Amino acid sequence: MQIAKNTVVTLHYEMFDADNTLLDKTEEPISYLHGGYDGIFPLVEEALQGKAVGDSIDVKMEPDDAFGTPEEELVRVEPLDVFPADVEVGMMFEADDPETGDVLLFRVTDIADGKAVVDANHPLAGLTIRFVAKVVEVRAASADEVSHGHAHGEHGHHH
Ligand SMILES: [Zn+2]
């Protein structure tokens, strides 16, 4: 079976930066619903279209096609007294975006002089990403999966 709209694709992947340093790899395969459901990077979907079990892809993505370009307004400096006493670099906090009302996930990136720098950019924002994947399984999606817009099952979405 070939990868086409409304198939569920299971794959293993590795992600590298521009220097070919490994950033991330699957321990367990992931599944997504193919066909423009925002289940995976659009360029990866494009490369996987028509592929079958055992096929591999190797896709290079500019930051805007991957995790985005870092935005300055997503970096904030806050007084330390708004944080718990045990705050340290690497901790994550949720905060509402006053403009959009969206919940943003901020990572503490620096603490100095009674202030903390928090950053809601994706940790991999700004990087050119090489995405290497191998197709493990392809199957037709169920009607439920198509109506939900995501894959169910062992490596898919759990309700
Ligand atoms: Zn669902």
Question: What does this protein structure show overall?
Answer:
The longest helix is centred in the first third of the chain and has 7 residues. Strands 1, 2, 3, 4 and 9 form a five-stranded antiparallel β-sheet that branches. The protein is built from two helices and nine strands. Helices cover 8% and strands 38% of the residues. It folds into two domains: 80 residues, Chitinase A, domain 3 (Roll), CATH 3.10.50; 48 residues, Thrombin, subunit H, CATH 2.40.10. A hairpin with a 5-residue loop joins strand 1 and strand 2. The protein is mainly beta and 159 residues long. The two termini are 27 Å apart. The model has no long low-confidence stretch (mean pLDDT 94). Bound molecules: zinc ion (ZN). The site of zinc ion (ZN) has 5 residues, from loops.
What is the strand and helix layout of this fold?
Elements: E1 7-16, E2 22-25, E3 30-33, H1 42-48, E4 56-61, E5 75-79, E6 92-96, E7 103-112, E8 115-119, E9 129-140, H2 143-148
Antiparallel strand pairs: 1-2, 1-3, 1-9, 4-9, 5-8, 6-7, 7-8
Quick take:
Belongs to the FKBP-type PPIase family. By secondary structure, the protein is mainly β. Helices cover 8% and strands 38% of the residues.
